[in-house]
Design brief:
Length: about 375
């Protein structure tokens, strides 16, 4: 549609506005979430255009790198536990939706839109959601015509709970397999308790649940209702907003063809770094793979701990995740930077490129590279 508009303007000899081709997002770093929320809400009709990001007060031109950093910083801030939208479950190392009741779930819609935009713009995100989130995102795979129709209410099992809350799932599994008298020994009812914003609240899993004891006969029903409450009903409003945000960008018949685990890989890529594969496909400009500087570079990188390897990948590409096609899809390039060896390495994340001065020793290279990748935020023009 944007392309046709441009053609029409050219044919009528009118001034052409190339911004018509883009979803232009302009944000301030210090008001990142609120600005992003406002921009996406105002430009909802443009969500399926190519994304282009500008940070106010910075000279960087977005050829892809600024977009990657926008996603990274926004996700990092939204998923921080102090922000309160998601809680981090240490046992499983996954994030899960906070069960706070909110009338305005616009920020959850923003997270869904971000996931959709990332998928649509082929950008991988470091989001640690459990697999059942992607099952819920595809329930149903096509957005209902009725805006009030329930969404995300997937049929989930004890295995799904095990992936998020393994300790609780273990306790429920023991309840199911208990050979003694459940009612007398467990002394529990169809009422559960949850902490919300520091306050403990009680919820009945069925009408009159606080007066219905859990017995050997009805314990399976209790476990299933408890799972449905935890993974569906207790987060119904925020997840519905998240669902509609995602599908506002990715609504497509093609979604019906995907399994939940395939959607997860498209959104998150792979967390497994294979630096040997990256070395194998790396391209060089000004260097050859036998140059002492290049040999020293790979010796240093392959000896880095995982955290520094992820920082290097983020420094060079704007993301610490591996795309669906693996390292070969990165088109990683190392370019010779003919400057003083006092300089730090420079990267062009738009092109997955690192510019490396000709350092004389492995020690110097390790020191300068570590400084560069540990302090990589913000963009400028030379």
């Amino acid at each position: 549609m944007a392309r046709q508009t441009l053609v029409d303007k050219v044919s009528r000899r009118q001034r052409v506005d190339m911004s018509l081709l883009f979803l232009n997002i302009k944000v301030r770093r210090l008001q990142l979430v609120s600005d992003s929320l406002d921009e996406l809400a105002r430009k909802r009709a443009d969500l399926k255009k190519k994304l282009r990001v500008t940070f106010v007060g910075e000279a960087g031109l977005d050829m892809g790198g600024l977009t990657k950093e926008w996603f990274l910083l926004l996700i990092r801030q939204i998923f921080h536990t102090d922000y309160g939208m998601f809680r981090y479950v240490k046992e499983s190392q996954y994030h899960w939706f906070s069960n706070w009741n909110c009338d305005n779930c616009s920020e959850f819609r923003l997270v869904g839109s971000l996931m959709g935009l990332a998928l649509y713009n082929s950008i991988t995100l470091d989001i640690r959601f459990p697999p059942c989130v992607y099952k819920k995102l595809l329930t149903p795979p096509i957005v209902p015509c009725d805006p009030d129709a329930p969404v995300g209410m997937a049929s989930l099992t004890l295995d799904d709970l095990q992936q998020i809350m393994p300790d609780l799932a273990h306790g429920l599994a023991e309840l199911l397999s208990y050979e003694g008298n459940v009612e007398e020994d467990f002394y529990t009812t169809f009422q559960v308790f949850q902490e919300e914003m520091g306050v403990i609240k009680a919820y009945n899993l069925k009408p009159g649940g606080d007066k219905i004891p859990v017995t050997n006969v009805n314990r399976k029903e209790y476990v299933q209702l408890y799972i449905d409450f935890l993974l569906n009903k207790s987060i119904e409003k925020p997840f519905a907003a998240f669902y509609h945000g995602f599908h506002s960008v990715c609504a497509s018949d093609a979604i019906m063809l995907l399994r939940p685990e395939e959607v997860e890989v498209l959104v998150c890529g792979s967390p497994h770094l294979d630096m040997v594969s990256l070395q194998r496909v790396a391209q060089y400009e000004g260097y050859s793979k036998t140059d002492p500087t290049i040999r020293a570079f790979w010796d240093v990188v392959l000896a880095f701990p995982l955290e520094l390897q992820k920082r290097l990948l983020h420094f060079c590409t704007g993301s610490d995740r591996v795309p669906v096609g693996g390292m070969a899809d990165l088109n990683f390039k190392i370019t010779k930077h003919d400057v003083s060896t006092d300089w730090l390495p420079v990267s062009h994340t738009c092109f997955n490129q690192i510019c490396l001065p000709p350092y004389k020793s492995k020690k110097e290279l390790r020191q300068k590279l570590t400084i560069a990748i540990s302090n990589a935020e913000g963009f400028g023009l030379e």
